[in-house]
Structure formats: structure tokens, C-alpha cells
Recover the amino acids of this structure.
């Protein structure tokens, strides 16, 4: 695949940037819900963006408890179509009726996993979420290519894979018979361009953490990495791959690493050993700013 040309400079966020974890697998604040899923509230200057919606409406209740006004959101963006990131989409679209929906076309495809007890389980976008997205078709911006979803806030679109370095999950399929491997082509991540460098936000990084960062490098001309926030899908990675990711992140020297959701305890511990105080505890209610 021919690398995309760097995105023209401009649109850098000069005002305050703040990311609130509305929902994660664990909670870091009393009274907030947790579930296997992810939802992030992004404030970038005057812009308000909701990235992912967890697997239920729990993110909505946490947002209310945190005083987050979802009605002000200008963009709802899904990192991919798995149910733990798209289950709350109907609630998000109701809460923000004027928001645009940024969505990769492949996010609507059926998907299955055989990881749990070896039996295929549907893990794609729930029927209600798919119906809500299609009902809001006039608001959808399809993101197979990079797109600016708010001033200074970008979506990667499709991320080129490097299977030799970061192999895909062997338990994901497009069919219930588990005969058609699913490389999660809709996986996409986000970045916020700030004067200190890039804030990179991952949903699950199914395309690979390093592949995602390399892709963003190509799109931004190699802007420095300031903060990395979100799921890394290292929970199923080998120890060697986790060590490789930790070493590369250390080389990039972010000032904050807030790895959560599908990172896993083993990977989180390795990241902590390598990057030390840079690594934050993450859960529902955590704020990075």
C-alpha cells in the first residue's frame, strides 16, 4: 500500500485539551459503573467529541454523574464495530441529535469470536445500534480514509497492518462457522494535534499499536507523541510482542500512557515496568489533561 501523503499543517488545538474516561472495564471513582467496554469524552478547545459508547447505556449514566453534557457533542466516532464499543450508540445519538457520526463502512459487518469456551459468539454491532446508525444515515461521515472530525481532532481511517510484527487476533471471524477470518478492517484510531505534540486515542488498536503510530507518523510528518490513551488489545499478545510495544513506546517518550480496556494486567505491568511513572491507572472517571 502506498503511504498517504502527510496532512497539511494547521488546525492545531491551542486551547485546553481534556479526555475523560466515561466507561472502562474498571472504575476509579466511587459510584461510577464499569463494564467490558470503552467510552471517552474529548474536549479539545471548543470542540466536544464522543469516542465509542461501551456495550450499554452505562456510559450515559456515568456521563450524567460526571456532569458531562452529551447534548453539546459535535461528533460521535466509533473506533470499530465490536459490541463493547458500539452497544450504547442509540443512546448517544439520542443524547446528541445534532452530532455527526464518524464510522468506518466495515463497522456494520457481522463478526464473531470463538474465544469464550471455543464456541462462536456474536460480537458485532448490536442490531439496535446498526438500526440507529442507518436511521441517522444523513449524519454519517464514512471514514475509510483519514478525516478531521473536529478542528485539530483526526481519525486515521483504515490502518495498514504489519502482520509479521503485530499479528491479528486468530479468534475473530466474519461468520458463525468461523471459516472467514476477520482482521477487523474497520479498526481506526484518533489523534489530537496540540502544541506539545499528538494525543493519540486508541479504541482497541486491533491493527496494532505500532502500526497505528507508524500510520499517524506518516499522516502528520512525524509529530512527537505526547500522550497515548485507550485500549491496546495486548491482552492476547505474546510476551515478546508486549516487550516490543513497551520498548517502542519508551523510545517515543510520551509524558502520559493511559492504557486501559483490552490491555490486560500482564501487559499493563510490563508497560509500567518499562515506562514507570508515565503509566497511569485508568478506569471510569479518570481524566487526562
Amino acid at each position: 500500500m502506498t503511504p498517504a501523503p502527510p496532512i497539511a499543517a494547521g488546525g492545531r488545538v491551542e486551547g485546553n485539551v481534556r479526555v475523560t474516561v466515561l466507561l472502562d472495564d474498571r472504575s476509579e471513582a466511587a459510584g461510577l459503573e464499569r463494564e467490558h467496554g470503552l467510552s471517552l469524552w474529548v474536549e479539545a478547545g471548543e470542540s466536544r467529541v464522543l469516542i465509542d459508547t461501551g456495550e450499554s447505556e452505562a456510559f450515559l449514566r456515568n456521563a450524567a454523574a460526571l456532569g458531562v453534557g452529551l447534548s453539546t457533542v459535535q461528533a460521535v466516532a466509533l473506533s470499530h464495530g465490536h459490541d463493547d464499543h458500539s452497544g450504547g450508540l442509540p443512546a448517544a445519538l439520542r443524547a446528541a441529535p445534532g452530532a455527526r457520526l464518524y464510522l468506518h463502512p466495515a463497522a456494520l459487518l457481522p463478526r464473531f469470536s470463538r474465544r469464550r469456551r471455543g464456541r462462536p459468539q456474536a460480537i458485532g454491532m448490536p442490531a439496535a445500534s446498526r438500526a440507529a446508525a442507518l436511521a441517522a444515515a444523513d449524519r454519517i461521515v464514512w471514514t475509510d480514509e483519514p478525516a478531521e472530525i473536529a478542528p485539530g481532532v483526526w481519525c486515521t481511517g483504515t490502518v495498514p497492518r504489519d502482520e509479521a510484527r503485530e499479528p491479528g487476533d486468530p479468534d475473530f471471524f466474519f461468520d458463525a462457522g468461523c471459516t472467514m477470518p476477520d482482521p477487523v478492517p474497520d479498526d481506526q484510531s484518533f489523534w489530537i494535534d496540540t502544541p506539545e505534540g499528538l494525543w493519540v486515542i486508541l479504541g482497541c488498536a486491533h491493527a496494532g499499536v505500532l502500526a497505528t503510530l507508524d500510520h499517524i507518523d506518516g499522516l502528520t510528518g512525524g509529530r512527537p507523541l505526547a500522550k497515548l490513551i485507550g485500549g491496546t488489545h495486548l491482552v492476547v499478545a505474546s510476551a515478546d510482542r508486549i516487550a516490543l510495544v513497551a520498548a517502542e513506546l519508551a523510545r517515543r517518550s510520551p509524558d502520559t500512557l493511559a492504557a486501559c480496556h483490552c490491555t490486560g494486567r500482564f501487559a499493563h505491568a510490563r508497560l509500567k515496568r518499562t515506562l514507570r511513572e508515565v503509566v497511569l491507572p485508568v478506569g471510569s472517571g479518570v481524566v487526562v489533561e
Summary: The CA atoms of residues 199 and 227 lie 5 Å apart. The domain at 17-114+121-288 is CATH 3.60.15.10 (Metallo-beta-lactamase; Chain A). Helices lie at 58-66, 83-86, 89-95, 127-135, 209-220, 239-252, 265-275.
